[in-house]
Each structure stands twice: as structure tokens, then as C-alpha cells.
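Example record used in the benchmark description.
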Amino acid sequence: MTASKGLPHFLLLSRSPRRRDLLQRAGYHFEVIDNNWPEEGIPGESALKRVKRLSAGKLLNYLAQVSSPTLPVLSADTLLEFRGKPLEKPRDQAEAWHWYRLLAGRTHRVLTALTLWNPRQNRWFQAVEATKVEFTPWEEELYAAYLAEGEWHDAAGGYKIQEGGERLVRRISGSWSNVVGLPIARFYGMLRQCLG
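Model output (C-alpha cells):
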């Protein structure tokens, strides 16, 4: 893919191998910066507020440690929203199983907040992408086999659509790459704004 042709090199504040893979496949040139920002929720906080706050917090934490970066800087956060409540990464196998039971045969949303530092304007801006994902109806054998594969670990909602988790998905409405962890088309538009 040549979508990144002519776009600037940037810094990525993310430890996610899925985000790095998506960006590399799309041909972007970037440097990964490890940023230890606690991804903790606030009781009663909506999924939308949480994902925006965490993405912005990662960027602001980095900006507080460096003086005026000259490259664009991207931070992102992804989580699931089901019935208005956030579902993050399951803590253990039992929680992943509970979430599969909850999501089976139903639709949830995957939200990703992208926060981008624009060095030309000396400011940051943010966008949120939402994708609807409908899971297949409950089949204990299917879900148990997927759980046993261990992909629930370190995955928003306990599944990885780009790997074996795709078999749990009946349909998707919106950006597939958003469900993986970074909406490529939305990011492309944001990065182009940095040039304008």
C-alpha cells in the first residue's frame, strides 16, 4: 500500500504490536516510543470519555517529558463498548469467557481514539473511530476452542479479529483496522492535516 507516500515520519506512542503491524503494512515510516501511561478507568466513566482521556493522557504525558517535538506524535487507545459500558482487556480467562457469553449473538462497538501532536501548529487534536461488530450466536464448543487458544490475553474485548477471533464475528460495520487497534484511513486524514 502506498497511502503514506509523501507523508512525514512520525513518533508512535504505543506498545501494541498490532498497531505497529498495521502501520508497517500501510507503508508508514515511524519510530516507536515506549510510554508508560496507566490505562485505568474511572468508575462511571463512559467508554467514549475513557478512550479519549486515555489517548490524550498518553500524549500529554510524553509532551511533558520532551521539549517541543519536531515530528508528529501519535497516541491511541482502543476499547469495546457494550450497552453503554466499556469493556477493556480481560484480566483472566474467566473474565474473557464471561465476555464471550455476554457478547455472543449481540452487537458491540469498538472505539479507538487517535490523538495527534501537530508540530507545525504546536497543538494536538483528536478523532474517534467507532466500528460495530456483531458476534455469532452462542456455540459453546466454538467459544471454548477460541478461549483455549489464549488470544484473549492483551486484547480489547478478549479477541483478535486479525487472528482466530475472526471466526467469532458474524458481521462488521465500519473500519476493520479499527477493530485491530488503529483506523488507518482516519489516521491518514489526520496526518495529512499536519502538512496543511
